[in-house]
Amino acid sequence: MLQSVSGSVYRDSDRDGARGGEAGVEGTKVELRDHDGAVVATATTGTDGSYSFNRVPSGTYEVVVVADGGELAKAVATGDPDSTKDGRASVSVDPGAPSVTGLDFGYYRPASVGDRVWYDLDGDGVQGADEPGAEGVKVTLVDASGQPARDVLGTEVAPVTTDAKGRYSFEKLAAGSYTVKFEVPGGTAAAATGAGGDASADSNGPDAAVTLAEGESNGSIDLGLVGEGSVGSLVWLDSNQNGAADPGEPGIPGVAVTVTWAGPDGKFGTDDDRPHSVTTDANGEYRVDRLFPGEYSVALGDVAGPSAAVGDGAAVSLQTFEPERGALTGDKTIDVSSGGAFALKSRLTLAPGEMENLRHNFGFAVPIDLSLTKKAVGESARKSGDEVVYRLEAANRGPGTATGVKVEDRLPKGLTFVSADRPYDSAMGVWDVGTLAPGKSAEISIVARATGGGGLVNEAEIAAADQKDVDSTPGNGVASEDDAASATVTVKPAPKPTPSPSPSPSAEPTSPEPTSPTAAPTQPTPTSPTAAPTSSPTPSTSSPATPSPTTSSPTPSASSSSAGTASPSAASPSAASPSAVSPGPTASDQTNGPAPSADSADPRRDGANHGGSNRDGMNRGGEASGDGRDGAEAPLTATPRKAPLARAGASVGHQVAAAAILTVIGVLIVVARRRKGR
User: Fold this and answer.
1) Domains defined for the chain, CATH in brackets
2) Structure pTM?
3) pLDDT tens for residues 78-107?
4) Pairing between strand 256-261 and 294-302?
5) How far out from the chain centre does Cα 635 lie?
């Protein structure tokens, strides 16, 4: 006998697993399968949710509710005939047994809630098409009592985390009131709620309340995140190029600054990179806020700033401070002659707890170009004791202003500092130039006295400046650089004093040097003898050849007596001999003695007065000796005078001639005396 199998599919709104007047689910497919799983019959629920399989042969079967479409696609089985709550139930058909009925299947249509968490880059509280989702944000669902929610099956709903696109959802929820709680990541804050008037796009805040109906799917509970990070702050003109923003150094306005976030993936160059562009203000300051934790780059774009800060004509700029590396002291040089842009980037990281970096400064300077020239004014050759004037010129070809300029110029040995027309430390050899504007120069004149001889090289160099020189380094001692110069002067040594020629050695007589000779007053000097002597004495041939070097040439004169005559008999034979009279100056006298004057031939001017008074010590025969004869005249001598240097060159010929004349006169006087004696 064939039997029937029947039941219903209904909405288990109270989730109790039993149909109590609850509406059926129409159009649901139900299958009858044999013990091998083969479908032997198919039915579709009616308006009341009922189904029926008729004329079922005896055997064991399974009734299966096919809930893969329609109203039950997302429904949850809450009641089965066998309590398995899987939409399946086993049934046995016996020929003698009554038909099988009441195979009811209860389903509950669960609710869901979700949406996304996003980075609100502009902070407006509204999801923007280009604003990326925040991955890894924790979201928790609690019920009306604040306890963890449970799904339709009574299972506690676990917290979830947002995916790569910032999305989340809670499924299989029973109708009721819930609160969606977002855990706001460190370094961020919740965006404003209800800012745009569109529930599907506005931020709902970190604790969003929601009421769900059976089967409701609410996809509008979202959260916008606003970054709490900041990056700034200064782009300045580092006038002294020390890498520090010193008081008085101006900021550079109008510099384009771009702060770029690497995005949620932390990689630069990908689609989620997010730039923020600002411009430095009048003080050279910049700032970008609402930044999220992550990796950043800071780039400066407009390089006209450093040039404009010092006026037109600046061709290059120096980066003196970079946040990543600190003071660079001219590490990077930028050509701005074309007024174009450059890209200088630095990196930084913002992390929760360290979301503010307002020390991201950039220092720039305009370089200088110092040069030094030096020359010695006047003749290059000097002699010891002369003054030497050096002229130094320090110049700055720019384009920046040079400050703290000092020139070192140490005078070499052989030069003694006298004066300078500018402040100059002669002890240290330093000229303090100070400040040189672009295209300007300064000069100094240094006066020194030459005290040594030879070639004196005076070297000078620019020893210090606050700025970096484009082609030289102050104080490095490299003579080939244009900040070094030298000048050479030649100093002749002072001449040594020429010593006076030493006279030939001679015996110094004791008699005083004769003064100007005078003629004897009582006896005129005979001019020419009237008669030749009968027996002229023969002069010694040796006497003229070997005259005494110590005697001058006395002129013989008549002996002084009361009668004015001399007795021939009283005359000493030796007195008549030419050898008794000095023949004249010797060769030594001619060399070293005084040059004879024009009247030296006059025997009266010779100073050898042999008559008259004996006061001069020269008259040896003025009185008769004890034997009654006239005193014999001893040869006269005079102390030779050491000739001055100026008369050392007197004519030898004149002296020889004078000596010869004196000798002849002496012989004539002797002959005359003898003739008178006869």
Assistant:
1) 3-108 (2.60.40.10), 111-227 (2.60.40.10), 229-363 (2.60.40.10), 370-492 (2.60.40.1530), 542-619+630-677 (no CATH)
2) 0.59
3) 889 988 889 999 999 988 888 999 999 999
4) antiparallel
5) 97
